[in-house]
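Work Package 3 (structural annotation) set out to generate three-dimensional models for the target panel prioritized at the project kickoff. During this period the team completed the workflow that converts sequence records into discrete structure tokens, so that structures can be stored uniformly alongside our sequence database. As a representative example, we reproduce one entry of 461 residues exactly as it appears in the project archive.
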Amino acid sequence: MKIARMALLALALAAAAAFAPLSSTGEAGGRAKLALIIDVDGAIGPASARQLKEGLATAVARNAEVVILELNTPGGLATSMREMIADILASPVPVIGYVAPSGAHAASAGTYILYATHLAAMAPGTNLGSATPIELGGPPSPLPGGEGGSQKNEPKSSSDTMTAKVTNDAVAFIRSLAELRGRNADWAEKAVREAANLSAGAALQQHVIEIIAQNPADLLRQANGRTVDVAGKQDVLATKDLTVETLQPGWLIRLLSVITDPNVAIILILVGLYGLVFEFSSPGMVAPGAIGTLALLLGLYALDLLPINYAGLMLMLLGIAFLIMEAFNPTVVLGLGGVVAFLLGAAMLLRVRGPGFEVSWVVIGLAAAVTLGLALLSGTYLWAARKRPSRVGAQAMNGLPVEVIDWSGGEGHVFAQGERWRAKADEPLAPGDSAEVVGVKDLVLMIRRRVSRQTSNGGLQ
């Protein structure tokens, strides 16, 4: 009977496990009634790309109905932009791009990302556009034969050729996104070639977006029942009465948003290198070494996430090495060479640039000035120390104050510079007495009682 009851219990549990998913699917219709908001506010970079990737993974795990990608960005790095677009195109959860709140914009990289979303929307008082690639340092020059350009038979410079290649690649990319989503491809090309902009109302009229919404609730109400292409399949959005939840970025994403600023990364590397230098020059301090190691690792990790030119990084490190050598071996040549190498490396550091990802010459100049100042200060002290006569060995111990630990007859033990020494004296001493070293013989300190000297105000010391 007991075995039969156990068998029946096992069958009941197996049946419950088998029918539980079917019951859940029937009640929720395959998806929980949930809309997740991912708020991207600021320059598009490695932190934004990671935030979107983690947000889409959370949406899949929680079986969300839609993801609202709220954008307010001046643009950013093309590498991070393309990574975000690839994640949107591969997402099994529909992504609604929403430029909000009022006063926000989706410029440069933000325009490409909005074109990639399954449904595009804007809040009143927002704008998008200015999608000209700026990796080469500025907007493209007029193409040969065009208005304001050179004649057809004039050869183009290598810079013009490269600019044309980058621009044409960007045009092809944004047109492909527009054709995929059925949006205005001609205006998309104009946004790239002429840095054109549109307000929310004009974007709706020109079929760049599908919805103008006051807030997320209004957006979900208008999106309900629309058909979108999700991973090659037609999906009818059921966004009515969804629970809206905003995904807050985790601590790692917040950290990345700070350290991936190239100026912050450069400062972290400087702090790290000088922390290690101070630790090696004064072993046992611990704090400079620990702080320096942490700062250096964070700085190098940040640079690894950015599209950097390693020749520029090597020049910066070479400049810092020259300045450190200047501190220990003062010369004019090493100091000037270090500053020049550091500045050249900083100018070459980033392979591509974007809004929010540019090296500030104010930061670089201050960093070079501080580095040179520390090198000159250290060199001055080192040069002065070399000119002073130094005492070593037994001579350095003469006059050193000690405290008697124990004493018997004419010898005992004393504390000197935090260490326990054997000592001898020609006069009686007692534990706790103060004495001073008058010589050293076979690692035994020769001491005498300290004589109190009268100070100028009549006191004793």
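The first strand starts at residue 34 and ends at 41.
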